[in-house]
Amino acid sequence: MEASGDEPFFHAAEALLEEMITQQRVKVLRLAREAVPNIGPEDVLNPHDFPELRAHPTFEFEDGLLSGLVAAQVALRAEYRRRPVP
After folding, report:
1. Mean pLDDT by 10-residue block, N- to C-terminus, for the chain (86 residues)?
2. In angstroms, rounded to a whole number, what is the distance separating the alpha carbons of residues 9 and 17?
């Protein structure tokens, strides 16, 4: 496949990952607020500061899914940029 032929796939995959990440961030924040009602989006980036989050039955799992989605997005972007420009 030529790099230019891959472009529509990369853009579609990027858009899909962005949508999935946005949805997962909302879910992670909702779960975090079950344990810490006033927690903000920035606070969720440092969950180790909140022992209540470790006790939450699904927070760490969902936060891990979010991390995986972000890692996939970073890998996709790196692959796209690595390809030669036609």
Report:
1. 72 97 98 97 94 94 97 95 79
2. 12
